[in-house]
Specification:
two-stranded antiparallel sheet; Rossmann fold; 13 strands; 304 residues
Length: 304
């Protein structure tokens, strides 16, 4: 809440499917101070083409299950948001809004790149514009309307050290004031974090503006063990029908934690507890078949 005192955009990074991240953000929006401070929540895990049913749902209206699921299923990241934690979040906002007057209700803004999966081959160019699409939603719906938003995106979209992500694209907008908070937590953290006594259920907030955590190199703390699809001439390397992943260092040498964010949530020494989608969502279902088609479109290869 204090982050909003000096910023109208508070970005909270997430580790996709992580239970801890989901639990924290649901507790946050249920805190009575939140609805007195923020007006909007901007999320990566929803398609703007389905903003209308999303608005209706979080405002307590009945939305058919098929229309509700399309909000997070019909995105540029096929299957990425099938973990129950994302539907849980939308339902939590709906529950919070039931106790609020209409003018005080939280609005959830879908901020993925719009994509229409009802056509055989989605429009070109969408793969490269996800951050720009999100920045456009924030500019139009939050900044230009004098509102304040919690921004929920994967941490990589929020690093202050990148000029081309959601935060970087709005850095020059005089209406935008960011406070970026990133989750950390896994075995092998530097001692200054691992000795703090933080845990999954009781994370510790750390301000990075001053102190030893801000001095840490970002590669020592964030996205350790990150792998990405190996590319040759811009196309993925495929072996036995599956893409090949290679380890990468996300940050340039010398980039420190305070260069990347304003604060972090320390979840302690345990690895994240990921909540996978239920297997019955895919096995022998029409959606499972469609998901394979979409992944083939995204990766430019056959199904895998």
């Amino acid at each position: 809440m204090s982050a909003f005192h000096g910023a109208n955009l508070v970005a909270l990074g997430e580790r996709h499917w992580a239970w801890e991240d989901s639990d924290f953000r649901i507790k946050l929006i249920r805190d009575g101070a939140f609805v007195q401070t923020a007006t909007d929540i901007v999320v990566e895990f929803a398609n703007p083409l389905h903003q209308s049913p999303l608005d209706r749902f979080v405002n307590g209206e009945d939305v058919p299950p098929a229309d509700l699921q399309r909000i997070w299923q019909d995105t540029t990241q096929p299957g990425a948001w099938d973990s129950p934690v994302y539907e849980d979040f939308f339902r939590a906002v709906r529950q919070v809004n039931t106790s609020l007057a209409p003018e005080r209700r939280l609005r959830v803004l879908a901020a993925d790149q719009p994509i229409d999966w009802s056509v055989p081959a989605p429009q070109s160019g969408w793969k490269d514009d996800r951050d720009r699409a999100a920045a456009s939603v924030i500019e139009r719906e939050v900044l230009n309307r004098g509102r304040r938003a919690l921004v929920l995106f994967g941490s990589g979209h929020l690093y202050r050290s990148s000029p081309r992500n959601v935060v970087g694209l709005l850095q020059q907008n005089p209406k935008a004031s960011w406070f970026v908070i990133l989750p950390v937590g896994e075995p092998g953290l530097p001692a200054v974090l691992s000795d703090a006594g933080a845990s999954r259920s009781h994370p510790e907030f750390v301000n990075l503006a001053e102190g030893p955590v801000g001095d840490l190199y970002a590669n020592e703390v964030l996205e350790k063990g990150t792998r990405r699809v190996q590319l040759v001439d811009g196309r993925p390397v495929i072996v036995n029908g599956r893409p090949v992943f290679v380890p990468v260092q996300v940050f340039e040498p010398g980039v420190r934690m305070r260069d990347v964010a304003d604060g972090c949530l320390n979840f302690g020494n345990s690895p994240p507890e990921f909540v996978p989608p239920p297997e019955q969502l895919y096995s022998g279902t029409e959606y499972g078949t469609e998901l394979q088609r979409r992944r083939a479109v995204v990766f430019g290869i056959g199904s895998f």
